[in-house]
Amino acid sequence: MAAAPPSTLATDPTTPPRVFSGIQPSGALHLGNYLGALRNWVALQDDADAVYCVVDLHALTLPKEPGEVARGTLDIARILLAIGLDPANVILFAQSHVHQHAELGWLMQTVASYGELSRMTQFKDKSNRSQNFISASLFTYPALQAADILLYDTDVVPVGDDQRQHIELARDVALRFNSRYGETFVVPEHRIPAAGARVMDLQHPENKMSKSVDSPQGTVNLLDTPKEIEKKVKRAVTDNDGEVRFDVDTKPGVSNLLSILAAATDGDPEQLATQYSQYGPLKADVAAALIALVEPIQARLTELDDATVRQVLDDGAERARSIAGPVMERAKVAIGLLV
């Protein structure tokens, strides 16, 4: 779509920007989730008005056993608290506890086009892997994701690089809705951290590390033991020439290790490459950096029980509804529903 003038609904420049992001409660959280997005959530909470969501409705796009999503929601929320999210500084809640998400999700389906949804690469990837059953929700959920973002007058969406296409869709449907029905939604921007934004699989460095793809030896989970981390990094795919150089095209495995080390130590992958002449020391340093990264997270997890996590989610949902309700009402009036 053509660019539109800045939204008149944008937040006052003298106030902190509102950020929103969400994560599905499915699979174990891994290094790519943390370095690609979640660490950025923590960094933003002191300087922004942060709203973070466990998107349990999105998890239903693929078949789940009864109770699986509920358990996963508590587990993911516990990890989010363990990595440093502070309920005093952020709103943290479960998507299904705020009914406006599903409600605005339907309105966004009326504004998003079939062509836009069919071009979503994640739909193509997941539908190709789902040989027996492909739900309609797997096709339409980017419209719900757009609703998640727009419900909170979001200025910035901190996400990994793999979500860039979905944020662009959220921007497009917001602009289209505003054009058709009058100024209603703030048009959000995405923010992707420079180092580690796209953490690749240790065994298949041409693919991003993913909790939805079966590659246990190529995925470093946040709950892995030090021995498991050392073993996975030691076996990480490199190449045969032995030269340590940051070059994603010709040396994807080595470049992935350098990118991970850079993200874990706040360094620069190209500069780090000059410090190594062999793969062994590089892998040892990557493993040590990752162990140092996950140990305090794992220690904090032992301090959080289900009752504490549930209370945080309940309080967060109440605060989220106080924001989402007026925005939903604004959208219903704009589109012409009887209110």
CATH superfamily of the largest domain: HUPs
- Number of helical segments? 13
- Number of spatially distinct domains: 2
Rg value = 21 Å
CATH fold descriptor of the largest domain = Rossmann fold
The sequence of SSEs as H and E is EHEHHEHHHHEHEHHHHH
Give the neighbour order of strands across the main sheet: 1-2-3
Could you tell me the strand content as a percent range? 5-15%
Provide the CATH architecture of the largest domain: 3-Layer(aba) Sandwich
User: What sort of overall outline do the alpha carbons produce when their principal axes are compared?
Assistant: globular
What's the level 1 CATH class of the largest domain? Alpha Beta
Count of individual beta strands: 5
Q: Would you identify the regions where 5 or more consecutive residues have pLDDT less than 50?
A: 1-10
Largest sheet: 3 strands, parallel
Explain this structure to me?
By secondary structure, the chain is mainly alpha-helical. The protein has 2 domains: 18-123 and 137-196 and 305-335, HUPs (Rossmann fold); 216-301, Tyrosyl-Transfer RNA Synthetase (Orthogonal Bundle). It has helices at residues 31-44, 56-59, 68-82, 100-111, 114-118, 121-129, 136-150, 164-181, 226-234, 252-265, 269-273, 279-301, 306-335; strands spanning 18-23, 49-54, 90-94, 156-158, 189-191. The strands form 2 sheets. The chain has a 3-stranded parallel beta sheet with strand order 1-2-3. Strand 1 (18-23), helix 1 and strand 2 form a beta-alpha-beta unit. Helix 4 (100-111) crosses helix 13 (306-335) and helix 10 (252-265) packs across helix 12 (279-301). It is globular and about 70 Å long. The two termini are 30 Å apart.
